[in-house]
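INFO  loader      accepted 1 record
INFO  loader      residues=170
INFO  predictor   begin
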Amino acid sequence: MIEMNVEFVKSMFFFTRTLRERAFRGLQKNGCNDLSFRPSTGMSSIGWLLAHQAAVYDFVLNMLIRGNPPKNPDFFDSYSGGNSANTGDWIGTPLQEIEAYYDSTESDFLFWIENTPVEELSRKLDESCESQYHQGMRIIDVISDMFAHLNHHNGHLSAIKGDWCRQKES
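INFO  predictor   done
INFO  writer      dumping C-alpha cells
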C-alpha cells in the first residue's frame, strides 16, 4: 500500500507543477509581468506567492521531515507565511532567483520521495517538530497537506489573473 502512495505523491508533484506553470503563464500571456502586483482583494503579490511555494517545499522537507534548518534561510524567512513581519509583498527578488529556489527545493523533494524507504512515510512527527500543527502527523499526511497548501496558492495565482484582467478592462 505504501508503494502506491509514493506513486500518488509523484503524481501530485507533477500535477502541482503543471498547475503552477499554467497559472503563471496565464498571467504573463495577459501582460502581467509585475511580480509586485497585488490584486484588489489584498491577497499576496505574485512574486511572494511564487517564492512562498518554494519555501513550502523547503519547510516540509528540510524542517519537518529531516529536522534541519531551511536550505536557504534568508530566502525562507523572507517568504514564509509564519513570519509576522511578512505582509505578502514581493521584496524585489528576481524571478530567476525565485525559480532557481523553487526548482531546487522541488527537485530535492522529488529525489527524497524517490529514494526514501517507504516505511518513512508512516513515521509520525514528534513533539520536537518545528510546527505544532504537524506534530503527530505521519509523513504521508504532511506531504498531502503540503500539496493542498501549494495548490491553494496555485488557486491564488489564478485569482490574481482574473483580477488583473478586470483591472485592465476598466
